[in-house]
Amino acid sequence: MKKYRIVYWLAAVCCLPLFTACNGFLREDPRDGTDHADAYRTLSDVYLNAVASLYNYVGGYADSQGLQGTGRGVYDLNTFTTDEAIMPTRGGDWYDGGFWQGLYLHKWGVSNDAVQATWEYLYKVVMLSNKSVEQIQKFGETHDDPELPAYLAEVRAMRAMYYYYLLDLFGRVPLVLSSSASMSDIVQSERKTVFDFVVKELQEAAPLLAESRSNRPGDYYGRITRPVAYFLLAKLALNAEVYTDNDWTDGVRPDGGTISFTIDGRQQNAWQATVTYCDRITAMGYALEPLYETNFAVYNESSVENIFTIPMNKTLYTNQMQYLFRSRHYNHAKAYGLSGENGSSATKDALRVFGYDTAEVDPRFDKCYFAGVMYDLKGELIRLDDGTVLEYHPWEVAVDISDMPYEKTAGARMKKYAIDTDATKDGKLMENDIVLFRYADVLLMKSEAKVRNGENGDAELAQVRSRVGAVARPATLENLLDERLLEFAWEGWRRQDLVRFGRFTRAYSDRPQLAGEESGYTTVFPIPGNVLKMNERLWQNKGYLMSD
């Protein structure tokens, strides 16, 4: 049995004054009737209600909830805003008031419901974490249990991870460390200030965290452990030029070679720090799976590569995974005994990077995408309602393909996760744990950091490519950006990668560059307009207007 989550008591801490108003920002109702005074009587209570309860929010089953798995949240903001994937309008399908077109065209505006809901979700977990920190510290005033420092470290690491997502998505955000902060105390912190806080929290927490594998069933299944913290620190260091830039619209970034990290008393630049944290993960025994597909199998808990996952179980947990469900044609899904919504597809730019339709197609294309004629699990042809064979046409995809010949069949569809034929909820409740962090990323981060530091990163890139039988390539920045798409398609990294490489705002695959977008203002999302209305001390990110 997967040991992970049960429904725990949760204090209604989100009724705190941070962003409360008629819109109910960060509100969370108690899960049961447990009295507050009874919630922290024993060490076990503290663990369940201050630590374990937070993991209820890493996955999700409703829109904009969870780090991955649901729609209109962190994953969609990081994926459908890029040259990796598109949700084309197909007649009456997938227009949704222009939402999906707006994401792809970077026309999301300050009143975008998904942007606001994602802000609310991330801050909800921050505020719950603040409450947990306070409760652990209060318990520690009268108890000296040796477990308490580790519990506190784990909660601080959780909060730091959510601030990592906030600084990545929104840039300049309020840094709130108290569950009882008053509205008058809430101000925005510069992006670098938030970055420094996250690095410090993770560095201080890491030595107190268990070294256990988070992706394996057991006491630490789905939890933030030391390798998870090191992975986040590597990401922070690799993106330090972006995250320490307080004005991302002036065309000038800090130099990663001069950004300083203190690690074990030694000063290292951003690229050296990335390598250090990557090497620490390697030293813990992580490695590439011989078969790429193992990481995304129906039962993928045994992976030696996966570092942090969202545990999935169709009977024990409520977490859902919508990506396969959204992508497959209705008849394609029906052939598996599941349901589909005939939506998301690879862009033409992604097809070109993969070398689709050429003699040099990357071996991972068939592992990541359905394309061409489709067959069921018995090898039988899948047919449309009119009896014709179902065939996906990858090159016919566009922002709007309504009334086009391939309206319902354009686009290469998501294939990355193995089909769980016993999945429930139309295929959204499946056994495949959702992969958030994995070791292949460690190798590519190390390779990129070495190249940016004037060193040779060929060896790490070669490991990733040789695992799938791809021919060797030199580790140049251009090749590494392509490799990250090839290796991590559908995994939610593309926006961050494009921003780091200075490619996010360019025109690509039916997406013209917006007026003024060359400044880089769309590399962060706007502070939601409703949030600004509640606190006049907060201000909008450059380039966005309240009327957008």
Summarize this structure as a short list of keywords or feature phrases.
single chain, 548 residues, mainly alpha, two-stranded antiparallel sheet, 18 helices, globular
The gist of it:
The chain is mainly α and 548 residues long. The chain is built from 18 helices and twelve strands. A hairpin with a 2-residue loop joins strand 4 and strand 5.
Any overview of this molecule?
- The chain has helices at residues 43-51, 74-79, 99-105, 113-140, 148-170, 191-205, 226-238, 240-243, 270-283, 323-327, 330-335, 348-354, 365-368, 439-452, 458-467, 477-488, 494-500, 529-534; strands spanning 85-86, 173-174, 188-189, 260-263, 266-269, 306-310, 345-346, 369-370, 372-373, 391-392, 413-414, 434-438.
- The strands form 6 sheets. A two-stranded antiparallel ribbon has the order 1-7. A two-stranded antiparallel sheet has the order 2-3. A two-stranded antiparallel sheet has the order 4-5.
- It contains 18 helices and 12 strands.
- The longest helix has 28 residues, at 113-140.
- It is 35% helix and 6% strand.
- It is mostly helical.
- Residues 1-33 have low confidence and may be disordered.
- The radius of gyration is 23 Å and the shape is globular.
Mean of all residue-level pLDDT scores: 94
Largest pleated sheet = 2 strands, antiparallel
* Helix content, binned percent: 25-40%
Amount of beta strand: 5-15%
Oligomer: single chain
Shape: globular
How far the N terminus sits from the C terminus, by CA atoms, comes to 49 Å
- The gyration radius over C-alpha positions equals 23 Å
Structural category is mainly alpha
Strand order of the largest sheet: 1-7
Number of beta-strand segments:
12
Count of DSSP helices? 18
- The helix-strand sequence is HHEHHHEEHHHEEHEHHEHHEEEEEHHHHH
The stretches of 5 or more residues where confidence is low (pLDDT under 50) are: 1-33
